[in-house]
Design brief:
- Pfam families: EF-hand_7.
- Keywords: Calcium, Metal-binding, Repeat.
- This is EFCB1 protein.
- This protein is an all-alpha fold.
- The chain folds into 2 domains: about 5-100, Recoverin, domain 1; about 105-180, EF-hand (Recoverin, domain 1, Orthogonal Bundle).
- About 60% of the residues lie in helices and about 0% in strands.
- It is built from 9 helices and 2 strands.
- A two-stranded antiparallel sheet has the order 1-2.
- Helix 1 (about 5-20) crosses helix 2 (about 25-40) and helix 3 (about 50-65) crosses helix 4 (about 70-80).
- The chain is globular, with a radius of gyration of 18 Å.
- The relative contact order is 0.12.
Amino acid sequence: AAMSRKRLQQLVDSLGRSAKHFNKREVECLVKLFDTLVAESSSRFAAAGFDRNMFRDTLHSAFGMTDDMIMDRVFRTFDRDNDSCISVVEWVEGLSVFLRGTLEERIKYCFEVYDLNGDGYISREEMFQMLKNSLLKQPSEEDPDEGIKDLVDIALKKMDYDHDGKLSFMDFEKAVRDENLLLEAFGPCLPDIK
């Protein structure tokens, strides 16, 4: 069920424009990779694209991601039309930001990943959920949650510029521009350097 030359060409042309960090050759490779992965999958969605599990496997094998909660959020960020399936267009456009995005694009992307309920803020609860999830528990700690609460307080102190107890996009953006390391403050949602 590989796509026709003509269809591939059209796709590469349009994605060459919308996924602006890849050249056409790279777009073509990514489309073919997508096709190959979909062909190998036994998913009933395969005709339409990646379902959550396939996407998760790909994030894990290609980019070393291990955190299920974060991978789920990355899936939702890629899945622009919320149909629970990542189409070839969503795949290439998503990877364009994921792998090569400008700082601005990556700030937007990370914020979206961390804003669990999509209300435009990263709340104290959301920070807590993500940090609790991504930090290893030390067996000796009586109440690991206390340490995480402290981290959330530190993050808010450092990043909540308008002091409303949650991070707006503007707070997050300003914090990351001042200190780039804060980009993935609440969990690893970008590929590691390799």
